[in-house]
Amino acid sequence: LSYSSPKVFTKGTIITPLTSTVTGSGIIYSVSPSLPAGLSFDTSTGTVSGTPTSATNLNTYTVTATNSGGSTTFDLVITVNDVVSIPDTTAPVITNFSIPSSSNSLSILINNFAATDETSSVSYYISESPSVPNVTDPNWNLIIPTTHTFATEGSKTLYAWVKDYSGNISSPSLANTIINLLKSGSYTSSGSSIYGLPFYSNEACLPGQLFSTITGKSCSSVLITPSTDSSCFYGDLFSVITGKKCSASASNPITVTTSSASTISRTLKLNMKGDDVKNLQVYLNTHGYIVAKSGPGSFNHETTFFGPATKKAVVLFQRANKLIADGIFGPKSIGVMN
Asked: Global pTM?
């Protein structure tokens, strides 16, 4: 009787069955002491098989083969090693991080934030500081951040990191933006820009409007008003509002008015009230998602109440923009609007 011996196995790894080499017939096999946990012994063939479930030191197991002619033994030596844990020292890699290049609001959307790792990237971190965050910093987030709010306007840089389960932190990824808050007032044009903002011939806003009645866009551009009876934009030959000839040009500066475009900074839903609800209704009415054809909620008759008609219009907006159509105007809807 013989086996391939000694044998070294690894905890949790299935073994290649050990078969006996023996002569004779009608043999019955036995083994003493019992094999390591997880291994089985076939008394009719003497085969050892299975998956060891615990580590054991080198030990000798005596196999006995018996038939009518007598018996013989073999000392099978087995060791089961524990699993060697290889530490994870590879940091995640950020594959995509982007934000809008400019914004008229202190709050911006995180357009993309993605990373890869050998296991899984579990925590995310964004900051205006280039300093690497501590692995135990409470601002690590299990959910990918979708927005960030700056304290002041100007040129900004946002830094992003990812941390894995082992505490490995990625190299930073950075993105830049310019925050330019519009202020109400009158200014004089010079060339093709005013107050640091370009003129847009495709956006038309009257003083005090939140959204253009012509394009439906947010009033983030400036309105050139050379007189009370016509309104012209830089480069226009005729007013898009009155049809009258425009006399303004880069060589003939004129006074313009800017409107501070109100933004929606909270989630809006059924039965809520506020000026931001009215702003939302204006946006919906001027973007083809009509709240009401007449009466309260209709164009130029927007209200501060979020009722069923507003919810219905929000659902249409969300479906058109491939968002979850729940009628709740939350961060993703606000992002599309902005």
From this structure: 0.41
